[in-house]
## 1
Amino acid sequence: MAINENRFVADLHKLREFGASGVGKGVIRPAYSEADIAARTWLANRMADAGLTPHFDPVGNLFGLADGPSLLMGSHSDSQPEGGWLDGALGVIAALEIARSSDQPVSVVSFQDEEGRFGVTTGSAIWSGGLPLDQADELTDHTGIPFATARGAMGDLTEGFVDPTRFTGFIEMHIEQGPTLDTQKEQIGVVTDIVGIRDMVVQFEGQQNHAGTTPMHLRRDAFQALSAFNTRLNDRFRNVVTPQTVWTIGHVDLHPNASSIVPGRVRFSVQWRDGDADRLARMEEIIRVTAAEIAAEMGMGLSYGPMLGLEPVAMDPSLRAALEHGAEQVASGKWRRMPSGALHDATNVSRLMPVAMLFVPSINGISHDFAEDTAESDLIAGLHVLDHAVQRLQPKP
């Protein structure tokens, strides 16, 4: 059976309706939200319609299982708090269309909490054995809700974990979430490797006090500690990082966060990414040394949350070659090999089986925003690349 482009695009738009933001094509579909669970229920029904067996595991990862050994394809369907309509969703719907049309057995997955409400690619990390379930259950989101409580919202939909040995490999299609393909007017990116990531919370504890009567030289201002830490960190990273290295302080909780009070405490996330594991470790050392120095100089207490992270991963040569063959067939002269600077479930799945990834362009390089979008022609081109790759991977008689 040939792939059905119209059905593929229609399913993408239908999935977008779950948690639609009302702003452009944006969605608000965080893990375990009402919209997320409704979307997963709809996806389960679409999988059943395609002849697959829907299966929710204990943390809400949704599998559409083909009979017998199969290639696994998919991504995730949860979103950032303010997310785009294609991030993750594209890979799931593309996999579903390939499963419906391929002669080769293809199973489909939508992993849960890829966007990190509770950590880093939580659902696939648990399934792959990288994060024990009892440890995951103790994780909390930014509002203090435990993972164990959140996953309870799945109710009686869940069953046991799927045995990964039934799958021969994993392919994940995704938007690039960066500007390279768009600015170079290229249509396809075949991923060579995925960078590693580290993520932890740092807390400075100073002294809350009156903003009008506390002299500046006597203040133990937690925000000033954060400001000094950020400035010093940027300077110290200068001789360690490469142009591809990135780091971000993305979530800040300042207490008590009031105009007339010297803040006494600040908790903030520090996340850094690079393709070299040794560099990631060196950056961690710099972060910890710098935080300790700032705490000592400014009279701050210092504590850390758990270190979360994943190692850099190279894509499987055979799966990657099949994608490259498909890219040449569909977009000759308009594709490239490229690393992924964003983290994906494929990193976790690589613990269990060979993995590969395919990118299509993000318009203006925008993602994790309501403005995220990709030209329909590029979405369809990516689908055809997958189709060619799966046909090439089909066992020879």
## 2
Amino acid sequence: MIGFLISVIFFGQLSDWIGRLPTIAISYVVSCISLLLSLLSTSYLMFVILRFFQAFGRTGLTTIGFVLLMEIVGPHHRTEAGIAIQLGWTVGFITLALVGYLFRHWFWFQVAMSVPLLPLMFAYKFIPESPRWLLIQGKVKQLEKILIEGAKLNGQELKYAIKDLKMLTEQKPGQDRSTVFDLFRSPKMRCRVLNMIYLWIVNAFMYYGLSYNTNDLAGNPYLNFFLAGALEIPAYASVFFGIKKWGRRPTLTFFMLVGGCACAAIIAVPESISWLSTAFAMIGKFCISGSFGILYLYTSELFPTVVRNVAIGTCSMWARVGSILAPFVKELGKATHPSVPNVIYAVLAVSSGLLALLLPETKGQKMPDSLLEGEHFGEHEP
């Protein structure tokens, strides 16, 4: 998790400076090298260090890859793409239970977990750079080439001439290298990023806490882990329906409140009815998985292009704090009272769900590009 924490802010800032695609390439190289070397580990210390670099590289791939997708896909399909990409995580979660069951030795387990990463090298030539990032940076020729290829692929014709693109670029402020500090310079954006940071911390804390606790639930631990992952498929389906019909903010609030209430309900369940505790825990996992899926899409739409990656990177970095603390919640319950973890989950989920109501809705809105647009985003919300 330390590798995750450092990676998201480092690669988030780097991608806003040098571009999405080069940053993804660097992340991939770091992942592959550390991955292959970890199979040759001769000591536990060597293995841990290489695992750090694996997390460092892979986080750059996933986070920057998500932002790149959001900046390539048009507004009409952004919701579908933003939720569909989360299914990749779900498939990995589900198959992890099977891989763990079949491969008990650490070496073969690592091999099985590593091989799927290698074919990604062939995708690099088919993925374009972010058109929004190119526009903000004034790289008009590269932008025009991508737009022409995209229009041709979709059977359309490019409507803008090169001079129009230049004029459009000249009207865009904030072409300098924005940093994480720009997120905190203006009052509205500062409040939003702090709100989002809290939401990410709570979601990561609960997601990993509830996932780690599947071994303590009644029944086979591998089956429980599998079911916890499989629950994410209907969770994302529900999220997709919710954000299309009601929007990001009300759906996020609903999932957080229901998830918190499910965790609180576990406290009142007698120990003799273990299946009911398991059911409430799965409901909590269902809701937190859904809300976590919304956060990626919501954050990418809320912050402007010039700091979009660093905004997601900053939120994800703080989320790692929640992930790191999550395993200790169970120990806190043992040291104090078994109900303490669920009380914490309930309080955090309900408070973050209510705070989400302070954020502007992004459904059907044009994503902001400059810092000025980001500051005034949502002012004319109906």
